[in-house]
Write a structure and sequence with these properties.
Number of strands: 0
Helix content: 40-55%
Structural class: mainly alpha
Strand content: under 5%
Largest sheet: none
Oligomer: single chain
Order of helices and strands: HHHH
Number of helices: 4
Radius of gyration: 19 Å
């Protein structure tokens, strides 16, 4: 009986890790390489649309929760659906910005 309870506790903990706060926050961080095939004007338009839709700034970057004692992998993600969507959009905007910067899509205004 005790062995079964321990096994159940381990299984419940492992099952909860798939939707944990840390896992979902990590999923918000995206690679900018996927945007390198998109034309600069289209990419800037996509980024600006995301910024408008979610009310985010141009320099939005993903943030991570400060969970105590390294409990992030086992804490459930209790953020609202809207908060998760905003966090995901933030990751997309940051990745798009990295691609835009790397490819020099936005040239700084010339002085003079």
């Amino acid at each position: 009986m005790m062995r079964g309870m321990m096994l159940l506790a381990v299984c419940a903990t492992v099952a909860g890790c798939a939707s944990s706060l840390a896992v979902r926050e990590d999923q918000d961080v995206q690679s900018s390489l996927q945007y390198d095939a998109v034309s600069c004007t289209s990419l800037i338009t996509q980024r600006n649309d995301l910024m408008r839709r979610y009310g985010l700034s141009k320099d939005a970057t993903p943030t991570f929760s400060n969970t105590p004692f390294g409990l992030g992998p086992v804490l459930p993600d209790i953020r609202s659906q809207r908060q998760r969507e905003i966090a995901h959009a933030t990751g997309e905007i940051a990745a798009m910005n990295n691609s835009i910067t790397r490819r020099q899509c936005e040239q700084p205004a010339k002085k003079g």
